[in-house]
Design a protein that fits this description.
The complex is a heterodimer of chains A (about 600) and B (about 375).
Chain A (H helix, E strand, L loop, with lengths): L1 H13 L2 H24 L4 H22 L7 H19 L8 H13 L6 H5 L32 H5 L1 H33 L4 H12 L4 H5 L5 H17 L2 H14 L4 H11 L3 H19 L16 H13 L5 H4 L4 H7 L7 H17 L20 H11 L5 H20 L13 H10 L15 H15 L4 H19 L5 E3 L6 E3 L2 E3 L13 E4 L4 E6 L2 E8 L4 E5 L2 E5 L7 E7 L3 E10 L1 E8 L1
Chain B lengths: L1 H17 L5 H4 L1 H14 L4 H4 L2 H11 L3 H22 L4 H16 L6 H18 L17 H6 L7 H13 L11 H19 L11 H16 L4 H6 L15 E7 L4 E5 L6 E7 L9 E5 L2 E4 L29 E2 L6 E2 L3 E4 L6 E6 L8 E7 L1
Antiparallel strand pairs in B: 1-10, 2-9, 3-8, 3-10, 4-5, 4-9, 6-7
Helix pairs in contact in B: 1-3, 1-5, 3-6, 3-7, 5-6, 6-12, 7-8, 7-10, 8-10, 8-11, 10-12
The chains are: A alpha+beta (about 600), B alpha+beta (about 375).
């Protein structure tokens, strides 16, 4: 009901006269159609409602982008964003907050109740915390004070900002505070686009892709510093472009205080604008001094060693992963921003603000790429580059008139799916980074066919990953005609269906297409930085797995600390104790089709199996 | 344009590789995709958006393993794409006719049967559209020779005000036209004639009053909504046409049943043990399609069983529906048989078992016709 009311208000912000009447006529018709469809549905009714309103929002955005007679300004865009985000906050809080979120909230509670940052007593009394989590304890790498204090490793500026909201409405108030920053981010981004000379029509077209699409949509109603950081980064950029120190200096200060890693983007920006070295040192020294005062270290929990170069292949994997990884890459999780990537190729023709923003962020991205958590860790996708999104959106807007309508339609459909899925199932935004993604898992679970292998993964590098990069490069360099987009998309799906009918050459036993008839995931799902481990499926005596496999010889990567006996498709194999190492075991699959792997004695962890 | 046509064909052809073979609708998916892709051509600048229905159909075919969910997804995608094209296209009579042909093909031609009759019905549908269209007025700046051509009307900023609703009306009339027996195919022509008369009379009464050439939004969206509601159910258009109130049955999961499968002759009785936790008896009639509401079929433990509680098992078939006199069962328990315009739901109905009954006796009325049977299908 609230959503319906909000959707009645939305057109009042921007539509007028005949257009407004036409919109309400459409509203009536779409609601009637939705009501009939809803009566016939067998799927999760909540998802159906979310999908319905997402589609309506998309229709609204379509009219907003194409109608001639609309009232438009950055403030109106912010008002639209505020209305939609008001719906988003309760939707995202259907499940307890996760990842770093509860720690930020605990710090807010500690500041309010104890006037300190020590979370020891908060951990002891979680039942009275608004986090809704009783399983919290100090995170890996949290500092320990001289008297046993356990402050969070996270910077305290965000908890400080959430205090008014928390006092007003507890957890919801805290999340609403972030949503408020989201509204400010939308307004500032629109203003930045206007400042950079982007046409109104392009801004209106790009606006929903930025405000109501991942990753901004998901981080707007979650307690992470990414959205406030993005707002401050945009404000700093605007301040620098307008040469208004009173805008960019406080913005940059806040930006760095939110998260120390942002200094890698803030410092280059400051360096580009501050001509005098002393002034530059001062700009960097102030936040460093504040961090030192709070945490007792200029680098907080980080170390100077983190700035040393990594192996070259790590940069490649990180870069390719951020571009096309199925679970954490721009192409699959926020495809609209591919236009921003395309804008990079037209560097000279891009607005000054875009070039400035990308240059400022480049050092940060360079340091992010080789790190093992380039994909964000336990968080919604694209966490570490959310603050760059307004700049990429600016690039996309500058490019908008050249984008074929077919590409826009495809991006829209994919984005609608992502948004509806993420809002309806907020817990699925967190992924264990095992090389699969939500869509691959869903298809695999339903069919017991390994669909995940067709989605590029640079977390667990697969063949599709390199194909994905080649396809992306081709798409970036070849100008697609609008007419070929739909057939290409259909042919791609047809190719997927055809390829899926063939058994895989590699099998990862923790994947969703495997029927797990006992046993458990190893390491367990909530292991901190689980992606750093070599994962698999833990089987004890009597447990089994079933999987589709081709006939022939396979090499299984297996670990049996105490030794074990297993049965693969009716043939027995005995394993000597392997200790903590994975060893190859050659097995024979007797025929094409479903094969059962059963542990007869002992216990094993099976990682993967490769066809010879 | 030729590239768009080629793209539409390629997209539809790709559906061959994706479509499962589970139902006739799945097998007709490339045909559905082709129709939508061609209709998208009429939507002109909205073509890229409307033609996305084709990859969406492919996604539904690939990802939805449950037959009902998949077919409903096809219906929803088709309905939205068709309606969007209907609203977006600069409609003249020819384009409206193209929409009608596509709609009728979707609603009545899967599977293709009774081709001659169907062609007559299609002609009737086109007659409705042609009867509904307002004669083209000469628009400023348009050459006299072009005034009759709807495309020029669109170019001049006007379009046929009634066209979307006329298309939807034509589709609605054709869906509910039985076609069997042949004489019922006259229905669309009768509607077309009625519309013509109505327009003549209202035109005469309004003569001298200037009217706007711009179409009202409500008429557009009402037409689009009606078309969408019809096409949503195109995978079961037979049920929509002949047993609309039974549409909610389609989503009902298969109930737990204990089969009996006995057909009682007139006067015959049988006693059955009631299986554990069963609460309903599912019955239908055979060769009883001409019996009217309230006609006594038999009794269960003294409780009368009448037409209305149950119906003739096959009364809602395409060939029988028009002549059947049975009402739909009060508590329907039929199953979906066939798809497309052939789809129908059998006439089984449920009656509650006496509370706590360990066994029941069902007796067929001895006054039933010689060929009529009371069928005990299952406990539920």
């Amino acid at each position: 009901m609230i959503a319906a009311f909000v959707f009645l208000l939305l057109p009042l912000v921007v539509f007028r006269g005949r257009l407004l009447l036409r919109w309400y006529a459409f509203e009536l018709a779409s609601c009637a159609f939705g009501a009939v469809v809803q009566r016939q549905l067998t799927i999760d009714p909540y998802f159906a409602v979310v999908l319905f309103f997402t589609l309506k929002l998309a229709a609204f955005a379509l009219v907003l982008a194409n109608a001639k007679d609309v009232k438009w300004s950055a403030n109106r865009a912010a008002a639209i964003a505020a209305l939609v985000y008001a719906l988003l906050v309760p939707a995202m809080l259907r499940t307890p907050i996760d990842g770093d979120e509860p720690y930020y909230l605990l710090a807010t509670e500690s500041l309010i109740h104890d006037h300190d940052l020590d979370l020891q007593n908060q951990y002891r009394d979680l039942a009275h915390s608004q986090t809704g989590r009783l399983d919290l304890g100090p995170q890996l790498g949290d500092p320990e004070g001289p008297h046993g204090e356990r402050p969070s490793r996270h910077e305290p500026f965000l908890p400080l900002l959430m205090i008014p909201g928390y006092l007003f409405g507890g957890l919801r108030g805290a999340v609403a505070t972030i949503a408020l920053f989201g509204v400010l981010l939308v307004r500032s981004t629109i203003r930045m686009m206007e400042d950079e000379g982007i046409e109104d029509a392009a801004i209106r077209a790009v606006f929903p892709f930025f405000a109501f699409a991942p990753p901004v949509l998901f981080y707007t109603a979650r307690i992470w510093p990414e959205v406030p950081g993005a707002w401050l980064f945009v404000e700093a950029l605007r301040g620098v472009r307008q040469r208004r120190a009173q805008r960019w200096v406080p913005a940059l200060l806040g930006f760095v205080l939110l998260k120390l890693r942002f200094v890698l983007a803030g410092a280059p920006l400051a360096a580009m604008v501050v001509r005098r070295k002393r002034m530059l040192l001062l700009v960097i020294a102030i936040p460093a001094a504040i961090v030192f005062l709070i945490s007792g270290s200029v680098t907080n929990v980080h170390h100077w060693r983190e700035l040393l170069p990594y192996a070259p292949q790590n940069y490649l994997i990180g870069l390719c992963g951020l571009l096309v990884d199925g679970a954490a890459g721009i192409a699959f999780q926020a495809p609209f921003y591919l236009l921003g990537i395309a804008a990079l190729l037209r560097w000279r023709r891009m607005p000054e603000g875009f070039r400035l923003g990308m240059l400022a962020a480049s050092l940060y991205i360079l340091y992010l790429l080789p790190r093992s958590e380039w994909h964000g860790g336990w968080s919604p996708p694209l966490r570490y580059i959310v603050f760059v999104m307004p700049v990429l959106a600016l690039g996309a807007a500058a490019l908008w008139e050249r984008v074929p309508a077919g590409v826009v339609a495809l991006l829209s459909l994919w984005t609608i799916g992502l948004a509806a899925h993420g809002v309806a199932f907020p817990w699925r935004l967190f992924h264990i980074a095992n090389g699969e993604n939500a869509m691959g898992e869903w298809l695999s679970t339903k069919t017991h066919i390994d669909y995940s292998r067709f989605f590029p993964s640079f977390i667990r590098v697969n063949e599709a990953a390199w194909i994905g990069i080649v396809v992306l490069l081709a798409l970036l360099f070849v100008r697609l005609r609008s007419e070929v987009v739909a057939p290409l998309a259909t042919i791609a799906i047809a190719a997927l269906a055809f390829a899926a009918s063939r058994p895989p050459k590699h099998i990862q036993f923790e994947d969703a297409h495997v029927e797990h008839l006992g046993g458990e995931l190893y390491p367990p799902e909530y292991t901190v930085a689980r992606f750093a481990y070599r994962g698999g499926w833990l089987l004890r005596e009597g447990d089994a797995l079933a999987v589709r496999a081709a006939k022939g010889a396979w090499t299984m990567q297996i670990r049996a600390p105490q030794g074990a006996a297993i049965d693969v498709g009716g043939r027995g194999y005995s394993l000597q104790p392997t200790g903590e190492a994975y060893v190859p075991l050659r097995v024979e699959v007797p025929r094409d089709g479903r094969v059962v792997v059963r542990v007869v004695a002992g216990g094993v962890i099976i990682d993967r199996m490769d066809h010879e | 344009m030729s590239l768009r046509v080629a793209s539409s064909l390629a997209a539809a052809a790709a559906l061959f590789a994706v479509a499962p073979q589970a139902t006739p609708i799945d097998r007709a998916l490339p045909f559905v995709g082709l129709l939508l892709a061609l209709l998208a051509l009429l939507a002109e600048r909205w073509w890229p958006a409307v033609v996305m229905a084709v990859p969406l159909l492919a996604v539904a075919a690939l990802s939805l393993t449950d037959d009902y969910a998949r077919l409903l997804a096809y219906g929803a995608i088709t309905a939205v794409a068709f309606s969007a094209a209907l609203v977006a296209a600069p409609l003249d009579r020819w384009r409206a006719s193209a929409f009608v042909v596509a709609g009728v093909l979707l609603l009545r031609w899967i599977p293709p049967r009774h081709v001659l009759r169907e062609l007559v019905v299609l002609a009737g549908a086109l007659a409705i559209v042609w009867a509904s269209g307002r004669p083209a007025r000469k628009a400023p700046g348009v050459s006299p020779g072009a005034a009759d051509r709807g495309t020029r009307r669109a170019a001049a900023g006007g379009r046929d005000a009634r066209a979307p609703f006329a298309v939807a009306l034509a589709l609605a009339v054709t869906v509910f036209t039985p076609g069997v027996p042949m004489r019922t195919s006259v229905l669309p022509f009768a509607v077309a004639l009625g519309i013509s008369c109505w327009l003549l009379v209202t035109g005469y009464l309004r003569r001298g009053v200037s009217t706007s050439n711009q179409q009202p939004a409500t008429s557009n969206f009402a037409g689009a909504l009606l078309a969408a509601l019809l096409l949503l159910f195109f995978p079961w258009s037979g049920v929509l046409a002949r047993a609309t109130p039974l549409l909610p049955l389609l989503r009902r999961p298969e109930p737990l049943r204990h089969g009996v499968h006995i057909a009682l002759e007139p006067g015959q009785a049988t006693t059955l043990d009631v299986p554990y936790r069963m609460k309903w008896l599912v019955l239908s009639a055979s060769n009883a399609s001409r019996m009217k509401r309230g006609a006594l079929l038999g009794e269960m433990n003294g409780r009368p069983i009448r037409i209305g509680d149950v119906a003739d098992w096959g009364a809602r078939r395409r060939e029988l529906s028009y002549q059947a006199r049975n009402p739909l069962p009060r508590d329907p328990a039929g199953k979906l048989r066939a798809y497309g315009y052939d789809a129908w739901i059998d006439g089984a109905g449920r009656i509650p078992l006496p509370p706590g009954a360990k066994y029941i006796t069902v007796t067929a009325n001895d006054a039933l016709g010689k060929d009529v049977r009371l069928q005990i299908e299952a406990f539920e």
